[in-house]
Amino acid sequence: MIPSDGGSSGKVSMAAPAAGAGGPGGGYEFDPEKIDDVIRQWQDLQSDLKADEMDARMMASVKAPGKEFASGDFAKSANPSGKAFLEQNARMQDYVKKYVDALLDAKKKIQTKEADVQADINKTGTRAQ
Hints:
The protein is about 65% helix and about 5% strand. It is mainly alpha-helical. α1 (about 35-60) packs antiparallel against α2 (about 70-129).
């Protein structure tokens, strides 16, 4: 997270967690007063991915409905796709968890910085009296 230091934008910039396979992560920029909404959106995504995980588990464990070759062929082709979906879902959940953690950390830093600024203002006001 890179808080604004009094510049004109007033925005907070935060690097995204590194993407899988060692690729660089992106970034995210938002107004500090909107951080709770941003966190909620990512937590909603996290919940959606958890629900998708249950579907992926079912897809990865398809059983042939019958003993004929067509049923067996279907199960053989469905299970690898389900397993790939499950693996991708796990990677996405990990990425989103790291991002939510980073956003919560950014919020904490923003709150600490705001408290420090308010304390400095209060000290200045006391000296001026």
